[in-house]
Amino acid sequence: MDKKEVAAVLEEIALLLELAGENPFKVRAYEAGARAVLTFPGDLAAALRSGELARVKGIGKSLAGVIEELLSRGEASLYRELKDRTPAGLLELLRVPGLGPKKARVLFDELHLTGLGELEYACQENRLVALPGFGAKSQEKIKAGLASLKRYDGLFRLGDLLPLAEALAERWRRLPGTRRLEVAGPVRRRLEVAGAIDLAVATDHPHRVMAELEKVLGAALVEPAPGQAETTLPQGIPLRLTLSAPVGFGAAWLAATGNADHFRALQNLAREHHLELTPQGLWADGRLQPSREEDDIYRRLGLPLIPPELREGLGEVEAGQQDGLPRLITPEDVRGCFHVHSFYSDGVNSLEELIMGAKQRGWSYLGISDHSQSAYYAGGLKVPDLERQRAEVETRRREHPDFTLFWGVESDILSDGSLDYPDEVLEGFDFVIASIHSQFSLKREAMTERLLTALAHPCCTMLGHLSGRLLLAREPYAHDLEAILKFAGGHQVIMEINASPYRLDLDWRWLRRAKELGILISINPDAHSLEGLDDVNYGVMIARKGWLAPADVLNTYPPAEVAELLRRRRAG
After folding, report:
1. Residue 185 above 90 pLDDT?
2. Which strands sit side by side in the sheet containing 281-284, from one edge to the other?
3. The pLDDT value given to residue 149
């Protein structure tokens, strides 16, 4: 090992000691030792053999022994011991620029954060603001640090990709030579995570468009194949372009949107019609058929225009042939939402502000559901807090007779499956969202039993973020999803699509099964601010991807019917 490598290990030992809460003098000793090694003018090994190194200011006998281990074995026992004792998630938090060991330890101890994704989600929920040594500025600084780290990840959440893709498309449509430019790929299909932004371009002058884009981006485009171009955006996100003549844009856009299984199914159907479908266009007897729009191709194949969200090769082509595609839910169908946090727990807005925000979005109702008392880290409400909130809810209802404010709670599912608060308290709410916020590591059978016990409680109206996943941050906890869905369907428990782009849980791949079981779905933004209400739109995207029609979703019903649907659980 050279001096730089030895100094780096000493610096990391200092860091690990600080994370472990060791004596600050010991921490500083290793920091000073690292500096002394870097500035030592002679040969470390020779100085060790002569005993000179132990007499160097900032090193001493103890550190000299650590350095001797590093030089002779390439590792130090103290370093290995500290590394083994330090949770990996705690070290991951330190990757955030500006987040030092002391603050990382607070986040780990107080909020139980074990990764960057959980940290970002905690920032979204404003959980850092009230922590000792933090505040709004610290939280914003950490959010900025997290954003800078994203460029190094291979996958990105839909919530990060979609706004950027739409902004680029809107801006670049005006570039010289561009006849048309549209978002394509997994982002257009609304996959929850993807590795790139895909754009489809119709142009008669592809090289001119590429030259214009290179000017805008200040970077060269790579051409992996004819009609294809790639680069990396300043945000660190890969960009893929498909360029085609306007006459074949429909086929090019269709192929660029994907997925591969869907496009292959269309190609097979085209052959049955004695046609050939390629990314360059639709061909009949060797002649290119005009396909300026995707609908031109679907119509020639005897199909309705299949929504991009459904193009996953999961039977959508066969359903289209049999007129079996649903009329998918749209944002315009939404009349209100549930799972909204106010400043009574960890939200930032008052009830009045949230009501006005809902009205501005054209909604006629809102379901307030702050955290329950076990979620102390999120300002969970004690019973006296609930009484104050109930009184304000009644006041707001009188002040807004044209608007329905439902009063609920997000009740923690405790380790044994019981719900936070006694039954007599739970019975006072209009609805109860039962959610797991802790002890994610239970075995599959135990976690399933925990969830089923919660679902069996007569006050459990909805099950929140069923799998507990945080996209690109935390895997779902082990559980038997089929058993849970069957129980929910049999007991009229509403299942949540948690529309936060950090969750998007229930997974869209299970929504058709939920629909088969007669489960009503509620698109819940899990909002902690007025801006968070707009996450309902991501929930609509996921509902569409899961083949849901308006009648399958609670949010599409008028207030009186919603109230009845909430009551039916207890009546049943």
Report:
1. yes
2. 276-278, 281-284, 287-289
3. 77
Whether the predicted pLDDT of 74 surpasses 90: no
Whether residue 544 sits in one domain with residue 401: yes
Residues 6+ apart with CB under 8 A from 519: 485, 488, 489, 493, 494, 495
- Is residue 252 included in any domain, yes or no? no
Task: List the CATH number of the domain containing 29.
Answer: 1.10.150.110
pLDDT score of 197 more than 70: yes
Number of structural domains in the chain = 4
Copy the structure tokens of residue 14.
Answer: 């200092």
CATH number at residue 544: 3.20.20.140
Q: Strands, DSSP E only, in 235-354? A: 238-244, 276-278, 281-284, 287-289, 336-340
Which amino acid is present at 237?
A: I
Task: Indicate whether 334 pLDDT > 60.
Answer: yes
φ/ψ (deg, to 5) at 68: -60, -40
What integer is the mean pLDDT of 399-410?
A: 98
**Half-sphere exposure (Cβ direction) of 102: Cα atoms closer than 13 Å:** 7
If pLDDT is split at 50, 70 and 90, which confidence band does 19 have? confident
Segment holding 169, helix H or strand E: helix 158-172
Range of the domain at 521: 331-571
Residues 6+ positions from 121 with CB-CB distance below 8 Å: 470, 473, 500, 502
Shared domain check, 146 and 118 = yes
Quote the percentage of the chain above a pLDDT of 90. Answer: 73
Q: Are 102 and 24 in contact (CB under 8 A)?
A: no
- Token digits for 59? 């090193």
Query: What separation in angstroms does the CA of 384 have from each of 3, 373, 376, 435?
Result: 61, 11, 15, 22
Residue 572 confidence (pLDDT): 57
> Could you tell me which residue, 441 or 562, shows the higher pLDDT?
562
250, 280 Cβ separation under 8 angstroms? no
- One domain, residues 103 and 133: yes
Whole-angstrom distance, CA of residue 89 vs CA of residue 537:
32
Q: Which of 35, 32, 34, 59 is nearest to 48 (CA)?
A: 59
**Last-in-domain residue among 150, 174, 192:** 150
Neighbours of 230 (CB within 10 A): 14
Q: Give the pairing of strands 336-340 and 287-289.
A: unpaired
Would 251 be classed as within a structural domain? no
